[in-house]
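Quick log. Single chain, no ligands specified.
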Amino acid sequence: MRPRRSVVAVLLALALLTGVACGGGDDDEAQPSATTQAESPATTGAGGAAGRVTVEDAGREPRQRLELRLAPGSTTRAAMVSEVELDMSMEGNRLSAGALPTTRAVMEQRIDGVDPDGTAHFTVTIGDWSVLPTPGVDQAAVTETERALAELEGLRGTGKVDRSGGSQSLSMDTSSVRNPMMKATLDSFASQVGNLTVPFPSEPVGPGARWRASSTATINGITMNTTSTYTLRSRAGDRYELDVVQDAEAPPGPVAIPNLPAGTETSIESFAVHSTGKIAGELTKPLPVNSTVEGGGEGRLTVVAQGDRGTLVQRIRIDVVLSPA
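-> predicted structure:
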């Protein structure tokens, strides 16, 4: 393998990694565009939970509507820990394998105001990024990750979420971020934040209820169509517990991934990610109190660089845990 082609594969894998870490994002009906992208040199936008919700089973009595009741001035602090393992090869030659540095981001979400229809406007601040001890990761990788994440500390964003949990918009100020890969990471993080809110059905549901939400997000040129199925395990007043199953798939065909060397062409042969998780939340808080999601998948892409053609295979495992900070 030519050295240049190996570099292309690594850059491509990093772009893909940030693209699939978010699960799902904007829904076709929620916004005119279902694309997470840089809106200007200073901001990056991302949508969140899907707007289309289909109830498959209304569950047992008593049935009640699930609606957010957010108070202006209220604040929620949460820590998101992300663990990623990556196994990547090109034409049978292994390029990397094993765990990447585990990261922890602390964010604060403040409700700035609530419209008469229940739509809440909020501000998100990322107060701290850190790298946690990760078995199998060398110190050089930890140091480099810490240096890169330092650019993201203190970033702020604004957005809004409706009473049914549909995160309609999220815009992060990236004017201080110079590293293109860090901007890509922020794209993924913004989509993760938007996707944390659960899309609730508009009809009353009870324990055992099951509903499905479809969403589409494009990050770093990779479009992922995601189907999320939620099951209401329990509800006590404003508190609820859910199980979630997500299946995300990218349609085959050419993709335009930013930050790759000029002249590089990429095309998806197949790309699918499956994940499961548990969510515990309160209807008075915009984010879940606790959630755990773990999953993995495989992507196969054709890469053409400097006249060479090869198949990049990437297998990933992702664990994301949200807890009070």
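The first helix runs from residue 3 to 20.
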